[in-house]
Specification:
By secondary structure, the chain is α+β, with helices and mostly antiparallel strands. The chain has 19 helices and 10 strands. It has helices spanning 8-14, 31-36, 84-89, 122-128, 143-154, 162-173, 182-193, 199-208, 210-214, 216-219, 236-249, 254-262, 281-296, 300-317, 324-333, 340-355, 366-379, 383-392, 398-416; strands at 2-6, 23-27, 40-41, 48-50, 57-60, 62-66, 74-78, 99-101, 130-131, 159-160. Strands 3-4-5-2-1-8 form a 6-stranded mixed β-sheet. A hairpin with a 7-residue loop joins strand 6 (62-66) and strand 7 (74-78). Helix 14 packs across helix 16 (340-355). The longest helix has 19 residues, at 398-416.
Length: 417
């Protein structure tokens, strides 16, 4: 058997980036050979094994043949006669189709980086910073469109080879992306949102036409005008991309980044006769993001945060002008008293929204500190004593709740004085 380190590990090493995960291809091996050496089988669709000590993945060299539309429509052939070049030929991009023989690696995994096995020109494409597909087999797996878009968010200075973009557009036109399962779309979307420049992922998806198929609620935002006095960038799609890039700049967690993506979805179906105003877009955004989250089976924590941000971001932006009673009602609608950590994320998403505008990238967002101070004041009341006093006076249920609210309003009023 011959062992080769392949894929992203080789690419990242050549780029001088940390190698986090190493994948291996086994040429000339069989499942029986792997089991005899203590490897643990984990692959369902093709032979993949975990190393008995370091748990890195080792896959038998294989070829793939398209048999049906979508991600799972493949016939797999893994056998000792499959060569390394044949295995690399099924990979998506040239920069991911390079290999290094295990024999070339030192004890610490270091190699000289001079002569990777590179039958498809990946090293030169790395130098030129180009995403290029290995061959026509790229079109057989629609997930590759999502993966390429995600890589574009990571390596934002790379460009897309014209023939690769043309092939992606053909895949979209033929309906291949319509066969993607929701879980896989969400998985790649979530990973792309967490990259350094997530807007690049959406630019690639939009350019090839996949965004309109997968996220039509987002795709329709481009070309929708906003008031230039609030949004110098004017275009809603451009604004949302600025917001998600700001969320990356501030190193926010995934729920915040999804909220940034979805907070203005309702502007995409604002009645034309009231543009560039967007009256009521907050509630329209809620309905659209709920549909999007249900379709992609988005995790609950992401969906719930996005929901609150969509509903309340306009109120949070103007919160400095609100009186104590309105501020307490805002806290209640955001469930901030029960979930203060989530409220902090809501405020972070709103800061991204405010700063994700042309000319506002480095602007202050005092609303965040203001509302955190308001929450602290509202949390400072003695709820046990207030409830006891109210019950001693014969209060029950809603009357006790009103007494709590009144005490919080008073505490906030005192803090604002």
């Amino acid at each position: 058997m011959q062992l080769y380190m392949v894929g992203g590990a080789v690419r990242d090493a050549l780029m001088g980036l940390p190698v986090k995960d190493r994948d291996w291809v086994v040429v000339g091996g069989t499942p029986e050979h792997m089991l005899d050496q203590g490897f643990v089988p984990v692959g369902k669709d093709f032979p993949v094994f975990l190393h008995p000590q370091n748990h890195e993945e080792y896959a038998l060299a294989r070829t793939e043949r398209k048999t049906a539309p979508g991600y799972h429509g493949f016939a797999i052939h893994a056998a000792p006669d499959v060569s390394l070049e044949q295995d690399l030929a099924r990979r998506d991009l040239t920069i991911n189709a390079m290999a290094v023989a295990a024999a070339q690696l030192g004890p610490d995994g270091v190699w000289d980086k001079q002569n990777p096995i590179d039958p498809y020109g990946g090293a030169q494409d790395l130098v030129n910073k180009v995403f290029r597909h290995v061959g026509p087999a790229f079109r057989e797996d629609p997930v590759r469109i999502l993966r390429l878009a995600r890589l574009a968010a990571r390596f934002a200075d790379f460009t897309l080879a014209p023939d690769t973009l043309a092939l992606m557009r053909e895949m979209v036109a033929s309906g291949e992306v319509d066969h993607l399962v929701p879980e896989r779309v969400w998985q790649e979307l979530a990973r792309g949102l967490m990259e350094a420049k997530p807007s690049r992922m959406f630019a690639v998806l939009r350019d090839c036409g996949a965004l309109a198929r997968l996220l039509p609620e987002v795709d329709r935002l481009w070309g929708v005008a906003q008031r230039a006095d609030y949004h110098p960038e004017v275009d809603t799609g451009v604004h949302v991309m600025m917001v998600i890039d700001m969320s990356a700049r501030l190193q926010t967690p995934l729920p915040v980044r999804l909220a940034c993506l979805c907070h203005d979805l309702g502007k995409g179906n604002t009645p034309v006769d009231i543009l560039p105003r967007h009256l009521g877009h907050e509630q329209r955004s809620v309905g659209l993001l709920q549909s999007l989250c249900a379709r992609l089976r988005v995790p609950t924590d992401c969906r719930e945060l996005a929901d609150v941000v969509a509903r309340e971001h306009s109120n949070i932006h103007r919160s400095i002008g609100l009186d104590a009673a309105a501020l307490v009602r805002l806290l209640e609608r955001c469930d901030a008293l029960r979930k203060p950590a989530r409220f902090a994320q809501i405020l972070l998403a709103c800061e991204c929204d405010a700063r994700g505008r042309l000319g506002y990238f480095d602007a202050a967002y005092p609303q965040r500190a203001h509302l955190q101070a308001v929450l602290l004041a509202a949390q400072g009341i003695d709820t046990h004593q207030i409830a006891s006093d109210a019950m001693a006076g014969g209060a029950k249920g809603q009357d006790i709740a009103k007494a709590m609210q009144a005490a919080r309003v008073a505490a906030v009023q005192a803090a604002l004085a």
